[in-house]
Amino acid sequence: MVDVTAPHASLSVEDLRKRITTNLQHRQGVGPKEATVADVYKATAEVIRDYLSSSWLDATRRMVEGNVKAVGYLSAEFLIGRQLSNALLNAGLTDQFEGAVKELGFEPKDVIATEPEPGLGNGGLGRLAACYVDSLASLGVPAFGYGIQYRYGIFRQEFDGQGRQVEKPDYWLSEGNPWGHEDFVRSQRVSFGGTVVDGENGARVWKPDWSVRAVPVDYLVPGYDSGRVNTLRLWTAKSYDEFDLATFNRSDYMGAVIPQVDAENITKVLYPEDSTPQGKRLRLEQQYFFVSASIHDAIRTFYAGEAQPDLTTLPDKICFQLNDTHPVIGIPELMRVLMDEYGIDWDTAWDVTRRTFNYTCHTLLPEALEVWPAKLIGELLPRHLEIIKAINAQFVEELESKGIDPEGIDRMRIFTDGPDAQIRMAYLATVGGSYVNGVAALHSQLLKDVTLKDFSAAYPDKFTNVTNGVTPRRFIKLANPRLSDLITEGLGSDRWIHDLDELEGLVPLADDASFVERFRKVKDANKRDFAAYASDKFGFSIDTGTMFDSMIKRLHEYKRQSLKILAVIAEYAAIKDGSADVDEIQPRSVFFGAKAAPGYAMAKLTIRLINNVARVVNDDPAVKGKLAVYFPWNYNIDLAEHLIPATELDEQISQAGKEASGTGNMKFALNGALTVGTLDGANVEIRERVGADNFFLFGLEVDDVEKLYADGYDPMKYVHADSRLRRAIDMVADGTFSNGDRNAYAALTSDWLTHDYFMTMADFTAYMDIQKEIEETYQKPDEWARKAILNVAHSGFFSSDRAIEDYLRDIWHTQPQR
Ligand SMILES: *Cc1c(COP(=O)(O)O)cnc(C)c1O
Known about the structure:
Largest sheet: 10 strands, mixed
Cofactor: pyridoxal 5'-phosphate
Structural class: alpha/beta
Number of helices: 34
GO biological process, one term: glycogen catabolic process
Strand content: 5-15%
Protein name: Alpha-1,4 glucan phosphorylase
Bound molecules: pyridoxal-5'-phosphate
Catalytic activity: [(1->4)-alpha-D-glucosyl](n) + phosphate = [(1->4)-alpha-D-glucosyl](n-1) + alpha-D-glucose 1-phosphate
Shape: globular
InterPro entries: Glycg_phsphrylas (IPR011833), Glyco_trans_35 (IPR000811), Pyridoxal_P_attach_site (IPR035090)
């Protein structure tokens, strides 16, 4: 007997159908007979939101009245994915929804596919924030996600006739937004510019130049089977001066609406850089805008109606997690609010602030650590600049009293000296909060040893690790229903959906022939599903008898899509010239999915190369049935949800020491793909858990990389040593993938041969060698399946529920509210 604990709401199919019909008539203005699939989607979304709202109000009330400290997760990005199917699952309404829309004459999957995907994030960091709000609600923790509702999210990626990336605006709100509720009554004023003057009793008074209105857009976050519905509050900017009458009276109608346009620009567009932010004024405005509104919102929520709230109790009410440096301006902002708005003295304000904030660092790349010119901060936020200077001065004194030498102090300054003084946001976050965590064991270690070395020496107790996780609701239960059913049957229960460690119970089944057989059938069926989806959506005709080999993630040199594409080219050349044994090679379909930052030339050129390799390889009858390359455009969560369950080999091949954690790697392992990867980020922990025999490890390790840098790395040495590599680079250079144009990829080939900072050349041979081993294993299907099952069984640790439990215990010191 299978023990099913999944939530199932008491609402019947009939009730739900009636509610949808009523909504269609009253809110969408159509009868059920005239309704289109888009009408039914919108009506259903509104009905589900309404249905959840009483639990939501209840959870908020209990949070304010109770004495469990809440969590405010501050993140400039929340890549939440489509909402409908997730809300239905977590609320226990999936069956009723399917029954109801069928009665109305629609296919449930068509209704679900109507929803546009909100692209309010770039990649891993934004998706992590979304997994965390899901887990917080599912564990029953009172929490807010706080961020920005961008009018235009991450661009929609298309490819032109030459295979180049073209960025198109993402009009995701064009059909309305049934999930987000704009709460004009609870807006906040956020101010900028101006000057600071002396006030009474030594106070400093900020006289800002201009203000915008931050209006919250509330999304409900229903926990899975927890009954708790939390809030994701994304701020949108509106003008206070809708219309400038004086300008209008001068007959300048367009000029009269300029204040509105200016204000609303703040939340108009998500910056599309991943890993290397742009130090732009508007970006700083965005950061301050959402953080200031969120801090005031928390005060309004927890001290509602109090004429003279005692804000020294703030750290008992809420703690703020800073998701990377984007919200770090919150530290001086809270200091300013406590001192200037509530009259609290510096020392008390500093104590409250330090106990309220914690900081998650997401990178090791020095160029990704945000730094702002002091001049810019002074122009936009003059009072904050004063406070940052004072924090820095106090910090320098503290370092002196600790006996740190002047060079050490200079390295650690939050505020650098000189005419081009800079503010180092990671340092401000480290000093202004209680804990700093990295996002995987290796990453946290490298933070202590390298990136924030001086800080960890001076404040060793501040540094900790929380390895990232992903939500099993979206990435297993929803994305892979066949595997979910098989797991539930294998374990005899579906408790794994909220306790992913239960997957360990699958270990004995890896040696059960009938389970292995059924596991293989699940993967085959998922491959056929993906082929159908990709045929429909991208026009691909994929041979499902081939190995599905995927590399999907943002395009970045450190992630090394170049290594994969060079290996594909080498394989192509070997099949063509007969040097590969045709009877031995394993037919593959290689999938890439990746967006490049619009200004990142090398990444965009790599996209062009991949597309052209795909064109040439797929058109060449000589390799038909052996090798094919597909690059579905516009990689997003929807594509991830379709491709990951169908993938057999997952590529996690970044240069060791560069990927902080990765979460894609976790999604794949949990869906029964085997990983080929370097010892980087969370790969290290995945391999430890699934077992070295069930992970294809290759390449340089962190120490090797450091040694090579120190000794003077020369890529030519590796190019000379491997004729397959030389051949592949020659083909890129000789016009094979550019209709004879020998210049097309010159920037790439010259980088490979002369610079190759991420050591793609040095790892090529090891990568080719491990592919042999992979193919041999794949040709023993039961052995492959056994390893894949063990990957699933041992990956429960990578649930975001576990990550949140780590944060609760080690950093936030709070708990679920019963
Ligand atoms: C999980 C995910 C990512 C992160 O992938 P990595 O391989 O960890 O870089 C990026 N984008 C989307 C859409 C995702 O779902």
